[in-house]
Predict the 3D structure of the following.
Amino acid sequence: MTTHLFDPTILRAYDIRGIFEETLTRTDAFHIGLSFISLQRHRTHDSSVAVGRDGRLSSPALSDALIDGLVAGGAQVTDIGCGPTPMLYFAAHELETGGAIQVTGSHNPPRHNGFKMVMGGASFFGEDIAVLGEASAAGVARVDGGTRREISVEAAYIDRISEGLTSDGMNVVWDCGNGAAGAVTNQLVKRLAGQHHVLFPEIDGTFPNHHPNPVDPETLQILRAEVADKGAQIGIGFDGDGDRIGVVDAKGRQVPGDLLTAYMAQDVGLRHKGKPMLLDVKSSDVAMDLLRKAGSVPEIWKTGHSNIKKRMKEVGAPLAGEMSGHIFIADNYYGFDDAIYAGMRVIDQGVRTGFDITAFMDSLPEQHATPELRVPCPDSEKFAAMDTITAHVLACNDPDAVSTIDGVRVRTDGGWWLLRASNTEAVLIARAEAATKQRLDDLVGDIGSALGVASLDW
């Protein structure tokens, strides 16, 4: 039996993340692989595992160590190499593997890295990750018979994400941000009609041009400028591992993830009348109303790609989206978050319907809402702070006006406000929406008062 203790800070709610050679090492990666395949076998899944990685400088070393651990535990590993996380999900589906692991730091700083995991076709997160840590500490046996092979699924993946979709007449700027989606995007646009301009497709784990966070307004400045320069109808950006999308319309306006989901619902809803569609707790009333008008039954759910995918399966939702740019499409697709495919669907919808994303943004009512606001709070304190805030909010408000599904979302006259602990950063996330600018200012003040209860402020 082999035992190993992980730094507790790396075992997160959605995945495993740490700082390479500080809180996350090659030895950790080996034992993640060994423990993962032990649990996979214990849960009676097939012992095959697909493994992919992003373009971070530490990803090859962590991937090799992870695969060594999987093989030591008796896994049949298929290594698909460097590419976006959704390509790994695609490989797991097409190869029908029992599990899948992507080595990726997503949109975090260059020295950070981690693992996104799937087992038995479902996200491996939350309690699963806690169990993996406990299993490793208790001891895991090595098993003979493990194997490793390397294959490329890139061509098949590009075939699938372009299947049946059109970009005829479109002028598009794609910003890969030197992330893992670069090579796929370069190959994809060669097949597409219209004009396509690809920014920063070279995969470079130092991210020399800008941080790979496509919903950060500063990150989108280069994309916005290029859309204007090229006279493009849309700009599409990706995060470091290609599962989150950022969109800029022809007028340079950023399209938040909730409104992007609402746009896609106008098409998806035609084929799924009366079905639920999901938005995360940070999403606006405007987006909720648009989902209703599209014929769906909208539902607010917990933030986090793993939470959303699990809930989609439970309720049979054909579409879901988060403010952060994770878009999940089960309408003629697999239901996982794939930024490249989501971009293709937005382009295709605009061409087919004649109502593109810019026309959609023009059609919206005036919205008084904050962006995502971040309040610094140490990882070791943020959940306790939220417990204190939640107790205070419940004591001071009608319980029927408070949702505690993920943090606290408080509905008041003329609007709502939210505070929740981020599961990926040392911050609390805040947002508010109101009928008027004055009411919005009032709600931001309410958030400040709630933060004060936990000795926090802006």
